[in-house]
User: What shape does this take?
Amino acid sequence: MESIKALPPPSSFERKLLRWLGRPILTLADTMGRIVILCRQTLYWLRSADYHSTMQQIVAMGVDSLPVTTLTSLFTGMVLALQTGFSFRKVFNEPLYVGTVVGLSLTKELGPVLTAVVVAGRVGAAIAAELGTMRVTEQIDALRTLATHPVDYLVVPRLVAGHLTLPLLTAEAMAVGIGAGYFVGVYLLGIDPTYLWWNMLKYTSTSDVAIGLIKSFVYGGIVALIGCYKGMYCGEGAEGVGRATTESVVYSSITILIANFFLTLALGAVFNKL
Assistant: This one.
């Protein structure tokens, strides 16, 4: 038999290439594994969600976020109607279908996405900072010594609150944005109010509102889950908490935008909107 020749040792370039390719892959695999474990534990403890803790998180995530989401949707609807009217006037010499564009955009896309991104910036960062501080100060370890599971006590109320509050905030954003667009269309663009309202109702159906609310339900879970994950697995010290807070906002926003594409495809096929 021929002797098996030993492979030559990798060169310095090959070692650097393997290190450059392998480290992100291992980090991604570790992150995905932890997220899957956290999701499994959350589903297990979901049946024992504490009512008072959940209500506190609903107030913190929903009621306290109402002013910023209202302001965002108000000016989004006004700018959308204004720009759409200018564009239609340039092309068709008449601001046609402003109400249709505002209604469809706010119910299906801008309403749920902008609300979720704003909530991610406010609530996701707060969740990551709070849980990260508890991890650094060993309060999470203290919960285990008191026979209290951290997922049951910390993650489940926030996840339930995220799923419940974001659809409500999105519905409010839809109403405020459409009202702001109606105001701009009637009083700034000079559109007949009856025609604008009738045109919007003609092309905007309840299925469009349902698509936006379903999207926001998913986004609420994304914001809460990523915020909890980044807080519970943050690095040591104040630097780790700050990095976890920043990554929570960035990763939540990116995940929302990526999920929006696939949800648009799936829900469009379900509701025959594509």
In short: The longest helix spans residues 98-136. The chain is about 85% helix and 0% strand. The mean pLDDT is 86.
